[in-house]
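Assemble and predict.
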Amino acid sequence: MSANTAWASVPADSTVTTHAPADADIWSLLFVFVLSSFIGLGVIRRVSRLLHTPLMSITNAISAIAVIGSIIVTGGDFPPGIRAMGAVALFASMTNIVSGFLITNRMLKMFKSEDKRGEGGHA
Amino acid sequence: MTPAIQQLAYIIATALFIFALHWMNTPATARKGVYAGVAGMAIAILVTWAQPGVVYHGWIVVALIAGTLVGIPLANVPLTAVPQRTALSHAFGGLAAGLVGTAKYYLWFSEGPENLTTFRMVAIILEILLGFLTFTGSLMAAGKLQEVKWIPQRPVTYPGQNFINLGLFAVALGIGVALTLHPTASWAPMLFPVVIGLSLLFGVLLIIPIGGADMPTVIAILNAYAGLSAVAMGFVLDNKLLITAGALDGSSGLILAIIMCKAMNRSFSNVLFGAFGQVQQLKAGGEQKVYKPETFEGAAQVLEQASLVVIIPGYGMAVAQAQHKVRELYDQLKKRGITVKFAIHPVAGRMPGHMNVLLAEADIPYTDLVEMDEINPDMPQCDVALVVGANDVVNPAARSDKSSPIFGMPIIDADRARTVFAIKRSKNPGFAGIDNDLYFSDRTWMLFGDAKAVIGELVKQLSGGSGMH
């Protein structure tokens, strides 16, 4: 845990150490949560209804952001049992990232307007 | 990698995710959205991996490769299987959140109990509750959609179901509160798995009473849960990127769920408590009504005379894989200068937007896919409404019959078209066991058979009869 000293000046980031200051900046976290929820509501409301299925698969991929928590747990200087749980979580998240983005792209390729029909021919 | 660079990279990743969703507002820019999303995710992974706290790399590499190897085939499933793939990925998302929460709890319990503050404990409990119930709930949903043999397709209900479900949830929550108040007690590590077990069980029980027609709403809710569990992980790990990305996903699931609820005339709280799968049993019997069958020749002739044809697809089209035949019919009609539109009900199919994707796959331009609210004013001018495997979404009882379980649900006004052709696999009532008066209207003629075969016959009639081959 020698790297911890370099991080001591950044109390907001406890992710790399098991001995972070106990009082996280709760209010700024909640602030971020509320604001990003409102941004999400505003942006998603405008998504075309045509694309609700691709929307769901791209948000699947984006919510696999759990990948970063998984990396921190898998790669940290922790007991093997803890890291094993992280590795399974990392596997699950990576599966969602890869399949989520690929299938979104695959579906979106199929949406063509009248004049673009016939281009990019798939069977 | 200094903390400042890391935070900056996380801000950029958040911005890219917001752009990714923003560009989904029209099909023209949507693919740009995918690239933005991929870029954001790549930045997030690399920056996190490069931080000094990450010292072991072997398992990370193995897990990333294994995830990629499993993810690629999952991205290439047939489009009719997209609902179950989506449910499966919610399950993976829930599992990841649950496992990270569990790992963090045991790590801090043994190596840094001062980290287990009340705030973090609340976040951990929420994370594992949401994560693990999303895991089993989504697995059940995926199983039902895939029609796995040992998972009952029909809603399973029993007396006191809601009482048992809510009771179970209350017990899990109660233990969660106890753990939050005494996270470092000697009994805490023993009770923690009980919360996990109850969440897993609760996820199963939540989905058991749900039938296929309610799946679009349930998938949307599980989507929101998966996002919220990522948010909880962000609270546990003090990580703002987890919070922003999870909140985007959560609000997406929430909005989709609200749209689905409105489209089925169900209240949101009703859905949240999982009580909505219970289909009221209808009075059986009643007078025997008579279907008026039509021949393919007759139907083809009427179609040829039309100037506006509205095709209303439903889950039956997906089951029969009829979308490509529908495209052939579309081409035949277009060739004659007939206007052809597709009327899409928000809950047609098994997930939000299901029909649009299938029709896009069949190379039908999205400009001809019209939402319910936009098409309904045009329905009286419509010469032929062709119902392909849709049932409840065109049932006029939703407008008129107060005793009907679907009363109040907005529908596509197929019954206002001059002529209705309804393709139906059998003479049995539809999924919910609700009689559909549309089929007995004096403007309606029935075409019995598998949707793909029936449309194939219509295409054959049109291409033969036109003398252009």
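Chain A touches chain B through 100 residues (CB under 8 Å).
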